[in-house]
Amino acid sequence: MSIIITGASGHLGRSTAEMVLDRVPASEVVLTTRHPEELSDFAGRGAEVRRADFDRPDTLAGAFAGGERLLLISTDAVGSRVPQHRAAIEAARDAGVGHVAYTSYLNPVAENPAVVTPDHRETEEALRESGLAWIALRNAFYAEYQVPAGAQAVATGRLVHNNGDGRIAYVSREDCAAAAAAVLTGEADSDEGKAYDITGPEPLGQDDVAALLGEVSGRTVEAVAVDDEAFVEGLTAAGLPEPAARAIATYGRAIREGYLGEASGAVESLTGRPPRSLREVFEAHRGELLP
Ligand SMILES: NC(=O)c1ccc[n+]([C@@H]2O[C@H](COP(=O)([O-])OP(=O)(O)OC[C@H]3O[C@@H](n4cnc5c(N)ncnc54)[C@H](OP(=O)(O)O)[C@@H]3O)[C@@H](O)[C@H]2O)c1
């Protein structure tokens, strides 16, 4: 068996590679990346490291050769990554890869206003049309990404948001990696053509997040709901370019409009252990939360 992980030098790629290497012999693991030199530690442990860049489809046939199960990690080129993902899917099909797991995002329906939705929807469509056996791991927003915003809230006492009364079950990146590793190694009983919502244990509103920040930091933190325009103004006043601020505001809108509000049991059913809570992630990053 040969397991291939794309984008293996990223945060999720590295964590998944660690977990896969804990379970299968390194000789069965292939890690692809644009930066092979960054994976010399894994190469030293016996994994094969191959150069692959989705922007250079000529690199992909060799990179994916012999792969039986492949984790396609979505790239960070939001808005322009569908051709990258299509190139990877075509190369996987041409290389005879038996199974592809793709790191998607919750509820990628046309109406979901989050800026990342169209990329994931179109990539899932490309997988559906490819003839490959595949599954989508639809990751919720990472709990770790709430730490910088949380630190700002602890420093000011105000967690400013445009999420309204919406909720989301933030998921730790370690649990996303654990779910992917379980699918890749065949430990998980996963169904082809199915999408799994990879979420934390419970949907939380921003009042809950503010309360957690207060408890973990020992400071007073209040959630302050604003509308999209005021939220964008706050971000641009803090120095963010307006297009980036508007893109970020789409996440709060998607939460507010209820597109991301469900928690699922998929992490536990795939990995055999319950997902970490946002409190656990905040506690693990307590030092970063305190000014
Ligand atoms: N759920 C969430 O809250 C959330 C938040 C942020 C991002 N994401 C998505 O989840 C993915 C993994 O998260 P992460 O934390 O590991 O992100 P990250 O550390 O920023 O990693 C970026 C990833 O994109 C890959 N990549 C970029 N350009 C590529 C190209 N031309 N060809 C092949 N791969 C390319 C990188 O691979 P190499 O550098 O190894 O080539 C790397 O795996 C992100 O890329 C993004 O799509 C999800």
Automatic annotation (TrEMBL):
Domain NAD(P)-binding: 7-185
Pfam families xrefs: NAD_binding_10 (PF13460)
CDD domains: TMR_SDR_a (cd05269)
Annotated InterPro entries: NAD(P)-bd_dom, NAD(P)-bd_dom_sf, NmrA-type_oxidoreductase
PANTHER family: NMRA-LIKE DOMAIN-CONTAINING PROTEIN (PTHR47129:SF1), QUINONE OXIDOREDUCTASE 2 (PTHR47129)
Protein name as annotated: NAD(P)-binding domain-containing protein
Organism, as annotated: uncultured Rubrobacteraceae bacterium
